[in-house]
Amino acid sequence: MTKGLRLILAGLLAAALVGSGAAPASASPSAPDFPTAYLYSQANPLADPPGANDWSCRPSAAHPRPVVLVHGTWLNKYDDFAKISPELKKAGYCVYALNYGASLNLLGLNPALRGTGDIRRSAGELSTFVDRVLAGTGASKVDIVGHSQGGLMPRQYLKFNGGADRVHTLVTLGATHHGTTLDGLGTLTRQLGIVQYGWPLLGVAAEQQVVGSAFLNTLNAGGDTVPGVTYVVIATKYDEVTTPYESTFLTAGPAATVRNITLQDGCAIDASDHLSMVYSPRAIGIVEKALDASAPAPPCTVNPPVA
Known about the structure:
Order of helices and strands: HHEHHEHEHEHHHHHEEH
Radius of gyration: 18 Å
Oligomer: single chain
Largest sheet: 6 strands, parallel
Number of strands: 6
């Protein structure tokens, strides 16, 4: 098991498990890296990432679509987006983020570890949240930025929950679009029956993201995309969770646009892994460029892995 995954599982033993209400966005600090954000979220499991969920925000002419941030498995809206969210807010976007995917499993006993429930149900939660964002802002569509399962789950929303009419651009980082082998561990545990019957510990979403799952077969049947949506897919060569890393890439179908990007192309010094990529200045720059073609070129800077 990688150090990064051990860090997430260590949340089960975190001292502060509860919080009665979401911390206001202004009260939540930004974080320079994933470990800092992760530890903060253990004591503040319902905290909004800074800059997010200002329901008085109204989109500008320059940025007419609100941005919805969707976290990954065993993560939450704060520890995944404590750096991206304030950057997007500073750039002039109305930014929103949700926690989703609570379920009855051992990891789910910790309210800071979300995204464990059935991905199909989580897509319904996203649908409800997007409708709330559209109603609150008066916008006709949103853009979605998702990490790991947070990139995969919105595709379920697009295909089966009417999301194609409400989403302009989907930007994904390290998403498990075609499943993961977890460097072979996922395949082995499926053969041994551990993944299929381990949901009381891991949550059903973990099994759904292993290569060859019934969920993925249904989602990807007929192609990777839906008409009318722009997809920007960001990968890192050092991804130890979505493996092989190329499995995150999508193929464009009719009336859809796909751009597949690897962080290290043109920037070998970015050593981001699965967890640290959402804290990479280069990845954040690519996200901003995907949302607005006039944004500055993404920088090339050092970003270390968590694991």
